[in-house]
Prior knowledge:
With 450 residues, the protein is an alpha/beta fold. It has helices at residues 12-25, 37-44, 48-60, 111-123, 135-147, 161-172, 187-195, 212-220, 242-253, 297-300, 313-325, 332-344, 346-369, 389-399, 429-440; strands spanning 64-66, 72-74, 95-96, 154-158, 178-182, 199-203, 205-206, 209-210, 225-229, 259-263, 289-295, 307-311, 381-385, 401-402, 404-405, 416-420. The longest helix is centred in the last third of the chain and has 24 residues, at 346-369.
Amino acid sequence: MLGDYPIKGRRASDIAAGIEAGVSAGHLTPGEALPPLRELAERLGVNPNTVAAAYRLLRDRGVIETAGRKGSRIRPRPAVTPRDQIRIPVPPHARDLSTGNPDPALLPALGPALAVAAAAADRAPVLYGDPSADPGLLELARASFRADGVREGTLAVASGSLDTVERILATVLRPGDRVAVEDPGWGSLLDLLPALGLRPVSLRLDDEGPLPDSLAAALAAGVRAVIVTGRAQNPTGAALTPRRAAALRAVLAAHPDVLLIEDDHGHGMVDQPYQPLAGGPAGEPVVTRWVVVRSAAKAYGPDLRLSVAIGDEDTVGRLLGRQRLGAGWVSLLLQRTVAELWRTDAAPARRVAAAYRARRDALLGALAAHGIEAHGVSGVNVWVPVQDESGAVAALVQYGWVVSPGARFRQHSPPGLRLTVADLAPEDAPRLAADLAAVLGARGGDTRRV
């Protein structure tokens, strides 16, 4: 237990700082157990409440995790080292398929929409005390949610999906609460949870989304919140089907008090219909606390840091209340720009979705010809299960391809590679598949399971 590493300090902040310094320096390794509260308190000559406060600080910072009577341990990878900082160098000769970015060539021109927003700002500059949300954007968002069968609710505008999720979790949950998340899943979300002192619980999934039995097990284990990606799931490309959504709603209905967050970041660049979970086909409620989030990042570009959320009045009210204490509001200039893009982008969105589908299908077909299992029914990514992530990543660099190791997205799920195909031309898919087959030692024949 911590070996010979000396824990010092008389105050909670000093004790916590000493332990975190040991983690940062590599003296304390992932999975290592911390001393019981009373044992460390006796060793340091302090009150056990002081040690408890130190452990609480470390848990809130994502450095340690607490498992009840099993005690506290150093997290497998502290949240101070975000997954998206694990970058693979891209040699001059290589194609970078690791970013998760949309294809810049498929993003809409921003000039006309910005001009409309700027003209509105010139006519009536936004001042302190003005409404924090653009009525035109809210009207478009409500119509979009309604068209997709989402329950009626309260609307809010925030700075992207992760900003929305963070503010909701921080105001509804408490450190130590469990949250069910997809595994493999969004790396930034997997980092956010421990940074908030929350404990992630893995949801297994296939191409149709989370498995109902996995969700049932997580709810039985006492998760306070569930986060699901309805389509364009990162990194696997999974998309809910009507059958799977109905099965998940049946499971959720037995736990109506759980907080349900539905992340629809793929809105505007996918062609799979949205399958709501918080309400049934006729809009009947399934859970009491719920939010559906749609962002502009994938459809209009990552620099448009804006999302629109709809949910129950209390949860959205907490989101807005926390926002007022910090950023205050999202720029109305940005809101009006996104609203104008939303008004004029229906046909281009269908074209973009079709382009991404063609690129995914080209690679999936080429991989299938080599007998390589792969997944990617929606979005801009393809997930390829492998036995050795690091070896496959390193070998592919030699062939001129840089891909993401699955460790960025996994908790307990098997290894894999994420390939972003947003700007991979269909004619390039056969060469990539052949190179991947050479790396994996695959043989011909269609054994793909997607």
